[in-house]
Amino acid sequence: MDILPQELKSRCTIEDLKRDRELAFENSIKSHNYNKKIYDLHREEYKFEVGDRVYVENGNRLNRKKMDELRIGPYKILRKISNSIYEVDAGHKKAESNVYHVTKLSPVRVGSNRTINLIYSLRGWEM
């Protein structure tokens, strides 16, 4: 049992199939490059140092309630384990629970010193 009708089989040659496959591959590469360009427009590459203050993403997005905080913190970075893994002083007893991937962290951006002073005083930190 054949899927292609006899008329299409007779017109289709190996060269046609090779050319169509190459064209499909080129179009796939073009599409990939376009999608990468659009994605990279708003991508920020964060590089944190020890002592920086960061917010940590609050758990799994599917398990979060509607009004839960998206990020918790700010917390201090204690140690850089690798280019993408950081140990954060999040207050967990288990050391493994304080280790986060860079995609789960976002830097503290402060509009004024007054805001940062308020955060420090609420947390009991020293400047």
From TrEMBL:
This is Tf2-1-like SH3-like domain-containing protein. It holds the Pfam family SH3_Tf2-1. It comes from Arctia plantaginis. Residues 52-108 form the Tf2-1-like SH3-like domain. It comes from the Eukaryota.
